[in-house]
Amino acid sequence: MTTKLLFPENFIWGAATASYQIEGAWDQDGKGESIWDRFSHSPGKVLNNDSGDVAIDHYHRYREDVALMQELGLQAYRFSIAWPRILPEGRGRINQAGIDFYSRLVDTLLEAKISPFATLYHWDLPQALYEAGGWPVRSTAEAFVEYTDIITGVLGDRIKHWMTHNEPSVVANLGYLNGEHAPGIQGDMTSTLRSAHHLLLSHGWAVPVIRQNSPGCEVGIVINANHTPSASTSVADRQARLEQDAIWVRLYLEALAGRHYPAELTHFISTQGLLPEDTPYIQSGDMEVIATPIDFIGLNSYRRIVIRNTDVPEDQNLPQTLFPSPENDENYTEMGWEVYPEGLLQVLGRLHFEYQIPKIYITENGASYSDAPGDDGRIRDALRVRYLRDHLRVAHKAIEFGIPLAGYFVWSLFDNFEWAFGYSQRFGIVWVDYETQQRILKDSALWYQRVMKANGVD
Ligand code: IFM
Questions:
Q1: Catalytic residue numbers?
Q2: Which atom of ligand 1 is nearest to the CA of 368?
């Protein structure tokens, strides 16, 4: 007999998407070009030269998509707003058709009794702002606040959960360090750190604007953090872990908590002659702005990453208390990401105990497996069901430990455009046939439907 692990009564069950990954209609109804339009239209940047031009055509099919959400029993839907639909040049001229689209989407959600959770920036920066300097310059942070004021001014009466940024570390690090994401710059540590600062600054400036325009709302920011132990207790591996953690996680959490940027980064910066004290881009008062109190942190967490210092040969990197190698391929999703549900508890515990975050939503968690419809049309994505079930069990344990976890959003509701991997990776609980745009509920969607209905997992 299995016991049901019940979640608190007001626990929020949802699913998540992002504008560029699902909307399509990349140049319709007055939308401006984004850096992802430009990047995906540049040959060789995205696998198979895929782009979000059409994606899953959600822009035209949002009504049937919301009907599907209602059929599933979603209580909340996390989506993002495409800045260049609202302001085609990033600032100045407003595109009313873009505002109307989101207004209709929100009304349709509310009619279906689904709470909208809106992210203001999920990576589709207006190309014009990139050309004016992008996130490395302060004026982009100012433009973000103008955009925030406009869109929250219109939707603030109906949307009561706002997230400023999605995964700012990915914007900075993949955009300016390894170049896998738009704008595709490699090895530019200065622009990486400047981007991180301006993303955080724009967040801090935006919080009071959102509160003003959306009385009674909750405001937060979405951080990605995975469980990242060092491969061994050696100094080299532990140092590598600290450096990774500094640039991916602590840079953001420390600043949001009102502390300093991590010492590891001060070192990075100082080797380029750019100590924070004398860099003009960190201005007096900025750190206080970034630490403006927020209502919640959104956590995106997927996997364990064991960190090893690859500069040191393994046999010289002692003592070795290596993690056992995972037993089989089922421990990895098709992204090559290790499945390690217990890691979620470590990350949630860290947010709670190290940073005293008042409220946490898991805003993304999920897995890429490509299971397709069988002859009977059914999609038997058993590994995804197992992944989600095991992570929900851990989420439940976190609540038992007193961690203020208030909701869970599966990534993703639909198969969609997975950035540099194009359409090759399928994270959805709903299958999408990219030729016909047909949607089919996978076994995982039917399973999640039962979980939400029962407010618990076996
Ligand atoms: O698809 C992305 C999403 O846009 C941001 N978080 C991780 C997901 C899977 O890679």
A1: 167, 364
A2: 9
Q: In the 8-state DSSP scheme, what is residue 234?
A: S
What are the domain boundaries of the chain? 5-457
Residues with CB under 6 A from ligand 1: 18, 21, 167, 300, 364, 411, 418, 427
SS3 state at 377: coil
How much distance in Å is there from the Cα of 36 to the middle of ligand 1? 14
Beta-carbon contacts of residue 195 (< 8 Å; ≥ 6 apart): 134, 135, 136, 168, 171, 172, 175, 176
State yes or no: cis peptide before 183, omega within 30 of 0: yes
- The pick from 78, 224, 364 for probing ligand 1's pocket by mutation, whose C-beta has the most ligand atoms within 8 angstroms, reads 364
Tens digit of pLDDT for each residue in 377-418?
A: 999 999 999 999 999 999 999 999 999 999 999 999 999 999
- Could you give the angle at which helices 168-176 and 189-213 cross, rounded to 10 degrees? 150
**Atom 4 of ligand 1, nearest CA residue:** 18
CATH number at 5-457? 3.20.20.80
pLDDT tens readout for residues 252-281: 999 999 999 998 887 666 555 555 555 578
Consecutive H or E run containing 120: strand 115-121
**The model's pTM:** 0.96
Is there a cis peptide before residue 412, judged by omega within 30 degrees of 0? yes
